[in-house]
UniProtKB/TrEMBL annotation:
InterPro entries: HMG_CoA_synt_C_dom, HMG_CoA_synth_N, HMG_CoA_synthase_prok, Thiolase-like. Residues 179-253, 266-331 form the Hydroxymethylglutaryl-coenzyme A synthase C-terminal domain. GO terms for biological process: acetyl-CoA metabolic process. It comes from Nocardia camponoti. NCBIfam families: HMG-CoA-S_prok (TIGR01835). This is Hydroxymethylglutaryl-CoA synthase.
Length: 391
């Protein structure tokens, strides 16, 4: 067994919900200029879950194409990162066994640390593969971001799932071993068990994100990481796309560099296009930024990318990787664009109805309204069990 093989991402697949809400609809409702959202926070639309969608249905839709392409041989670990869990005990990925055919000879675990969870999954996967390069790990990051109606957080909702196949000798991104870490006890965003909507101190969270990104960068350098000038692009966690611009400017200035708008646009512009219309997908957001970059950039072969992961509460990680020769053959650009373009736009009343719907708690049989056109749906909740089906 060798421990020197490169480790990284060999496949990346994305799914989002059936519905989306345009921020112009929200702006009208809130009585604000739509440019506050389109320009001010850099969001045009956000994905909204249908009555019969949740993190399991979108995760299954993201992961199935990976299983179809690679089979399950070698997948001995499935890590599902989410902060929108559907159960306090059972890992959401266990539902995927019956939906997409995961192997039984596997460990299947749910991970949580706000939006950072997907990166935790990726790094834990890299560690397992370093121990045994024949091991493959399916990492899934899926979330539905929800804030209270008529609050500043409302325009920063969204939903998506990104599934990644992490392997030795990867086909898309080879990860560097260096990684910069930062964690601290901060109350910037949290969701107590009894709430369906997050609580956030918006301004504190924006500042905490920037400080954490800077500290993670400083640690990355202490660990022998690359120079700022080595990166062809920076993929940031994007709760709203303007946040990536703010954080990159902050990072450059913290290192005594001038942050010219054109240089910032060149470094992160392409990473923001999917997030701009999907909204905050928490754990998936950073990886949606990577997908958008890979789908649009001219040849990135051998280019080095930076990744800046932030999860409120808070944990941040700065890490890096090199784009592998031949990566374009492994992309799913058409499917990614179709997932975004095929969403049905909601009117405000329907959005509000979906937002206010509560899960039944009485243990009786409750069929779910049939809405989604996506491959999997939550068919019912019965006896406190969630029943899923293929569409
Ligand atoms: P707000 O107070 O409504 O907005 O909330 P604002 O008044 O600060 O305006 C936002 C921007 O729009 C400002 O620009 C305005 O100038 C501009 P900035 O000063 O920031 O550059 N603006 C306009 N621009 C053009 N035309 C106009 C116009 N009007 C105003 N007409 C806030 C903003 C982000 C605080 C709010 O949406 C919020 O609380 N969101 C949720 C928290 C959040 O996303 N925090 C991000 C960092 S924390 C994080 O990333 C973790 C997270 O993903 C959770 C996790 O880890 O699980 C959230």
């Amino acid at each position: 067994m060798s421990t020197s093989a490169s480790v990284g991402i060999s496949d990346l697949s994305f799914a989002t919900t059936h519905y989306a809400l345009d921020h112009a609809v929200l702006a009208e409702r809130l009585g604000v200029d739509r440019d506050k959202f389109y320009i001010g926070i850099g969001q045009e639309r956000m994905s909204v879950a249908a009555a019969d969608e949740d993190i399991v249905t979108i995760a299954a839709a993201a992961a199935k194409p990976i299983i179809d392409r690679h089979g399950v041989d070698g997948i001995r670990t499935v890590l599902f990162a989410t902060e929108t869990g559907v159960d306090q005990s059972k890992a959401a990925a266990l539902y995927l066994h019956s939906l997409i055919g995961l192997p039984n000879a596997a460990r299947v675990v749910e991970l949580k640390q706000a939006c950072y969870g997907g990166t935790a999954g990726l790094q834990f996967a890299a560690g397992l593969i370093a121990r045994d390069p024949s091991h493959k790990v399916l990492v899934i990051a899926a979330d539905i971001a929800k804030y209270e109606i008529d609050t500043p957080g409302e325009p920063t909702q969204g939903a998506a799932a990104v599934a990644m196949l992490v392997t030795a000798d990867p086909s898309i991104i080879a990860l560097d071993p260096q990684s910069g870490l930062y964690s601290a006890d901060i109350m910037d965003f949290w969701r107590p068990n009894y709430r369906t909507e997050a609580i956030v101190d918006g301004k504190t969270s924006v500042n905490a994100y920037q400080k954490a990104a800077e500290e993670a960068w400083n640690d990355y350098r202490r660990q022998g990481g690359r120079d700022l000038g080595d990166f062809a692009a920076f993929c940031y966690h994007q709760p709203f796309t303007k946040m990536a611009y703010k954080a990159h400017k902050h990072l450059l200035e913290s290192q005594g560099r001038t942050a010219e708008p054109e240089a910032i646009e060149a470094a992160i512009g392409k990473t923001t296009t999917y997030n701009r219309t999907v909204g905050n997908s928490y754990t998936a957001s950073l990886y949606l930024g990577l997908l958008a970059l890979l789908d649009q950039a001219e040849d990135l072969t051998d280019k080095v990318l930076a990744f800046v992961s932030y999860g409120s509460g808070a944990v941040a990680e700065f890490f890096s990787g090199t784009v592998v020769s031949g990566y374009t053959e492994h992309l799913r650009t058409e499917a990614n664009r179709a997932a975004i373009d095929s969403r049905e736009l909601l009117d405000y009343d329907h959005y509000r109805q979906l937002h206010e719907a509560q899960a039944p708690v009485d243990g009786k049989y409750h069929a779910t309204v049939s809405e989604t056109s996506r491959p999997y749906r939550l068919a019912a909740i019965s006896g406190h069990k969630r029943i899923y089906e293929s569409v």
